[in-house]
């Protein structure tokens, strides 16, 4: 029985190995996991990168660096284990630590929700890639898939993923999502760039073209392309094929640098002038507000003083009224006493005569 078990074990192992080889046979070697070495190399403790935002998505020259950094962080299992059913289940403390790491390279204060949304997308995409490469090829042979843990993954995390993907309700949900995606007639065809990034680039190119047409800038169409989409690779110019270099097309780097510096100075001068006008307008507004507040204060003081004077006049008038009424009452009482005395004396005299 021992020998039989051994043979059975060898046979199973061989079957697993064959299935594993079959699952990954003919697949071209990919680019490997994102490590974002370019960011670490270029940054070197310098000033953090600015990130623009459009509809909650990062845009600008360093948007791709931010996305790659988010992907790198969520793929590190010591940051975010894969055992959670989805990104919403990841504890806040894990998300907070990841966001603090992003702050080391990017100026994204106050954008934690947007950054976490990008991390959630990277987290989901990573799990989908694992499922496509290491789970689906085994079909219904779930245990064989479980036995072949992808490189770099903890076995416990892989088991959690296999358990999740094997659940009937999860498979039903995936099927429903696929049917919904098939109904979508707006297909994303802009490669690794988001629609927001493409839109921002088109707006920037249009604005730059408008400035050139109005004479505000002196720049060629080719230079506008670089201004918007970023610098070329060394010695290459996009869209011109082999043999065309930046020097041949636009001149030496020193002349281009001079032009760029001149344009930068002009732009900075315009910015300073606009800022000065804004400060002057703000100062006038502050002074006007101060004058208005002083006038309101003066009017309030006048109203209060008038109220005091009117109250004093009313009190004085009421005192006079009371005094006059008291005098009239005393005069009336005195007259009544005199009349009573007269009537009494007359009555006494009449009695005496009789």
Automatic annotation (TrEMBL):
Region described as Disordered: 1-36
UniProt-recorded name of the protein: Transposase, Ptta/En/Spm, plant
UniProt KW keywords: Coiled coil
Coiled-coil region list: 257-291
PANTHER family recorded: OS12G0282400 PROTEIN-RELATED, TRANSPOSASE, PTTA_EN_SPM, PLANT
Amino acid composition bias (Gly residues), ranges on this chain: 1-14
InterPro entries given in the database record: Probable_transposase_24
């Amino acid at each position: 029985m021992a020998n039989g078990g051994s043979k059975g074990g060898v046979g199973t192992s061989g079957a697993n190995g064959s299935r594993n080889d079959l699952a990954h046979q003919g697949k071209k070697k990919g680019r490997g996991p994102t490590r974002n070495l370019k960011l670490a190399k270029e940054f070197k403790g310098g000033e953090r990168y600015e990130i623009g935002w459009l509809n909650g998505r990062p845009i600008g020259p360093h948007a791709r660096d931010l996305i790659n950094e988010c992907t790198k962080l969520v793929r590190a299992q010591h940051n975010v284990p894969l055992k959670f059913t989805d990104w919403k289940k990841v504890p806040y403390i894990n998300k907070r630590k990841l966001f603090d790491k992003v702050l080391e390279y990017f100026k994204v204060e106050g954008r934690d929700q947007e950054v976490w949304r990008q991390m959630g997308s990277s987290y989901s995409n990573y799990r989908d890639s694992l499922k496509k490469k290491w789970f689906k090829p085994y079909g219904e042979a779930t245990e064989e898939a479980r036995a072949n843990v992808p490189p770099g993954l903890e076995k416990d995390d892989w088991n959690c993923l296999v358990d999740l993907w094997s659940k009937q309700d999860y498979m039903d949900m995936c099927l429903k999502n696929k049917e919904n995606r098939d109904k979508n007639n707006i297909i994303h065809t802009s490669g690794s760039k988001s629609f927001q990034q493409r839109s921002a680039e088109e707006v920037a190119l249009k604005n730059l073209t408008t400035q050139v047409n109005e004479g505000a800038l002196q720049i060629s169409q080719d230079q506008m392309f670089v201004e918007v989409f970023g610098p070329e690779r060394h010695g290459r110019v996009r869209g011109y094929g082999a043999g065309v270099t930046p020097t041949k097309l636009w001149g030496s780097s020193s002349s281009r640098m001079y032009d760029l510096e001149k344009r930068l100075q002009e732009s900075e001068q315009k910015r300073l002038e606009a800022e000065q006008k804004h400060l002057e307008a703000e100062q006038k507004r502050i002074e006007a507000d101060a004058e208005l507040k002083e006038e309101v204060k003066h009017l309030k003081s006048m109203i209060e003083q008038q109220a005091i004077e009117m109250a004093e006049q009313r009190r004085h008038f009421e005192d006079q009224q009371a005094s006059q009424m008291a005098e009239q009452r005393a005069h009336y009482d005195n007259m009544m006493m005199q009349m009573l005395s007269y009537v009494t004396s007359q009555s006494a005299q009449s009695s005496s005569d009789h």
